[in-house]
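Sorry, I am new here, but would you mind making up a protein's amino acid sequence and the C-alpha cells describing how it folds?
***
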Amino acid sequence: MKNYFNDSPIEAKKDDRYGVTPFSESLAKSFVKIENPIGTTIALHGPWGSGKSSVVNLVREILSEDNDERLIVSEFKCWWYRGEEALALAFLQNLNSVLRTELKDKVKDLVPKMGRGLLQAGPVVGSAIALSPVGAFGGLIGGAFDFGKRFFPEEETLEATFIKLSEALEKEDRRFLIIIDDIDRLDPEEAIAIFRLVKSVGRLPNVMYLLVFDRNLAERIVQEKYPSEGPHFLEKIIQAGFELPSPLPTDLNGAVLASISEICGSPEDDGMVRFMNVFYDVVAPYVSSPRHVSRLQNAISVTWPAIADEVALADFVALETLRLYEPALFNVIRSNKNSVCGVRGQGDPGQNDESRFDMFLKGVPDEHHELAKTALQRLFPRLESMGYGGEWVTEWSAKRRVCVENHFDTYFRLSLSDETLSSQEIDELISRAEDREFIKAAFRQAVAIERRNGCSMVPVYLDELTTNGKKVPKDKVEPLLSALFEIHDEVDLEKDAERGFMAMANTTFRYHWLIRRLTRDRFQLEERTNVYLGAIRNSSLGWLVDFTSSAIDDYQERENRPQTREEDCLVTKDALPEITELALAAIRDAADNGSLLAHHDLLFILYRWREFNDLSEVRAWTDDLLSDPKSLVVLTRAMTSESWSMGMSGFGSMGDRVAKRTVRAQISDDTDIIDANEFRRALDNIVSSDDLKHDEKNDVQQFLLAWERQSESGD
C-alpha cells in the first residue's frame, strides 16, 4: 500500500480504500459515450476533503486503460494562476497547446486570435499578471492587453475566428476532454471567470469539460455576485452534475486502521479490546471524509517515530485525534496532569458529579460534549464514575498509558519523560536480569544521572522493574536480586528519598515493593525462601539488616495488627535464625573495620543489632565512641532528623498552606543503645572546645537544642 502525505489524492485503482472505483468508471464511460459534444460540461461535486481529486485520477486512469486514440485528455490546473486575466490567458494557452498538438495546421493561430479578441473586448483588471513559471506565459510582466497585442496578430474578428475553430473541430473524429479540478481553491472572482470561459470560448465542437468543485460553495459565490440568477447561472453552463458518493463509515474506519497498522504496527493481543473501544469511541466519530483519514495519517506519521513503543497505541491515536479535531480539549488535558492521572480517593464525593467535566468542556462545541466526556473516561479512569484502587496504577504503568503521571508527559512532548525508561532499556534489563555485572553497572550509571527534580534515575529504574516484574523469568529472579542486594547501599541515596509532608518512598521501600512484585504469586514460600537465602549472601549491610528485620517482623504478633499469613511472609519461620546470623556477622564485621560508623543508616542498624542479639554488644561499641569527638559528631548527625507538620484550619483560622520543618533529636533520656547521660556530657564538652569545625559545632548545637526541647515537652 502506498503512503500519501499532504492530503495527496490516490493515483490508481489499487489504492482505492473507499470504493469509489465503480463511480469513477461510470463517470469515465459517460465521456466516452457522449455523442457530438459541443462544449459539453459535466460537474463532479463534493465538499472539501471528500476525495474529488482521487476520482479525477481514477477517471484518467480508466480512460487511459481504454486506449481510445480518439479521446484526448488534458488538465488545466487553474489554481496555479492568480487573477482573472492570468486565468484567461492560461486557459487559452492550455486550449491552444492541446489543439495544436493534435490538429496542427488545421487550427494554426486560431486560438491566439481568439485570445486577442477577448482581451480587446474588456478592460484590464490588474496592471500585472502573476503566472506560474511554467509554460509559454511564464515571466509575463505588464498589462494583459499589451501582451495580447504583441502575442496575437491583429487580424479578423473574434466571432469569425471562433467559427473557423468550431468548423475545424467539427470535422474531427477526435474529442477533447479538459479537466479543471480545484475550482473551489480559487477566489470568488476567479472561480466565476472559469465558468465564464467554459461557457463562452470553451463551447466548441468535440470539446468536453469535467469541472470539479464544491457545489454549495460555488452556488454561494454566484448568489453573492449575481443574486438574481442564483443556481441558474451554473445550470446554463453544466449539462450534468454528479455528487461524489460519501464513503461508507466502514471503509473510512478501515482506512484509518490500515494507516495505523502501517505506521505504528498492530496493538498487542491483550490490548486489542481496549484499542478498539478507544478507536470507536474517540477516533471514528471524527473521521467522516477521506481528508480526515489523510490528515490523521499525516499527523501520526510525524509524531509516532519520536515516541514509538514508549506509549500506549490506543492513547496515542486518541490524543492525536483530539489534537487535530478538538484542540481546546487537548490543551486542557495537557495542562491538567494532576487532575486526570492516577485514581480518585476512596469515597470521593465528586466521582459521580457531572461537574467534574466542566473544566474540560470549555471551548468544545455543545454537540461534541458527550463525545468529549466519553473520550476523557476512555483515556483517564480517574474520570469514570466507578472507582479504582491504587494497584491499578501499576498495571496501567506497565502498558504506558497516559493516565499514569510518569508517562503523561511523553504524549505531549514527543519525547520520553525523564521519569521513564525507554522500552528498549527495560527490555534489556529484563532479558539480561541474570547478568549480575550488567545490572550493577546499569544502576551505578543511574546513580550518576541527575534528573530535573534533583533525584537520580535509581527510583525510575526500580519503579520500572517493579511495574514489569512479572516479565522477569523465574530462573533469573535470584541473580537479579543478588545483584540488587549487593549494591543497595551504593544506590540508596538521600536525595532519592521523598521529603516533606506526605513523604512515603525511599530506595529501601522501593526494593521491598520490587521483591514482592518479583516473587508474590510466582514462588511458593519454600521456593521463595531459597531464592532469598541465595540472594542475600553478598548483600550490602544496610539492606541485609533491613531485610532481616522485615522477615522477623512478618512473624511478630502486634496489637491492632493481624498476623501476616505464612504464605505472605518473606521467608519461612525456620529460616529466620540463619538469616539473623548472617545479619549479625555483617554488623560485627562493619563494627570492627570502621564502616559501621560511616553507614548512612547507622541508627537503624544499631537498633536492629540490639533486636537481633542483646543490648550489651551494642552498648560496648557505642561506649567506645564517647571519648572521640569525631565519632560523637557522626553519632549526633545519625540521631538528627526532621519532621514536617501543617497547621489545620479550625475555630476561625485559615490553616497553613505549606508544611513546617522541625529538627528532631532521635534520642531520649532513657535510650538504651547508648549511655544517654554520658553522651550529653561528652557533647557539651566538645561544643565548648576547639576540637570541632564550625559546621560540626553547629550540628551538635542544633541536636542538643532539639533534645532539650523534647525533654522539656516530654516528647
